[in-house]
Amino acid sequence: MALKLFNSITDAGPDDEGLIAISGSHGGIYPAGVASAVGLRAVLFNDAGIGFEQAGVGGVLALDSVGMAAAALNCQTCLIGSAQDGYDNGIVSFVNDTARQLGVIAGMTADQAAKVLEAADQPAARMTPPAEAQKVAQPERGPIHLLDSASVVSPELNGEIIVTGSHGALIGGDPARALKANAHVAVFSDAGFGKNNIGVTRLAALLDKGVGAVTASHLSCRIGDASSIYDTGVISATNELAELMGARAGLSVKAFMLAAIVSKRSAVLRI
Fold first, then answer.
1. Is 69 in contact with 104 (CB distance < 8 Å)?
2. pLDDT tens across 103-150, in order?
3. Most CB atoms within 10 A, among 18, 92, 111, 167?
4. pTM of the full predicted structure?
């Protein structure tokens, strides 16, 4: 079987063209765009709880437009961010029309679905390569950096306030991949919490790095969309540093951002 496992779909590249993939990434628009852009033949994602406006599987649906078979695995059955656990334990929860025509159905195990997807044709087209949205909110007061994927965070954002569209799970369980900057504050989606509450495990890892971190409920905002998390997100989990800045479950992300700005200014003054 031409199958390859990717804890993050951003680890895939042009050499993987034509392969069937199981990815630990959520099934939103950005991961789907990456899967298409590198030329994968078919893909299984994590459904991230499906969530607000079905954002957790929005990319699975979008891949129909280029004839790419795709499905998502129930986040309660396998660890988001772990392709191996997806393969070993994942149960299909959501299927696009292209995959359904091949025989993939909800309730299949991931390995069963992967075998069915061996019959998938190489898509005749590719989605437009995803434009990674990077915006700055409240530049006159903050700034707050809005990044649709944590994959584009860089050390240049050390000490900054970052809202990402990514899930709050450690990729492959690796604390070194929690965030590529020692931010002042970082925000993620809780991706439905998922199996073993994996969707919030970055928070403890970032506490060890001195980063205040929170997740937003997947039911309050679109995973993969930092602007949505900033605009309508409601905090679902926090680490202790974020709590010291005023974060708490049920508070809006936007309200917490105001407190984070104050905290950042105080830290600068202390220096």
1. yes
2. 999 999 999 999 999 999 999 999 986 665 778 887 667 799 999 999
3. 167
4. 0.94
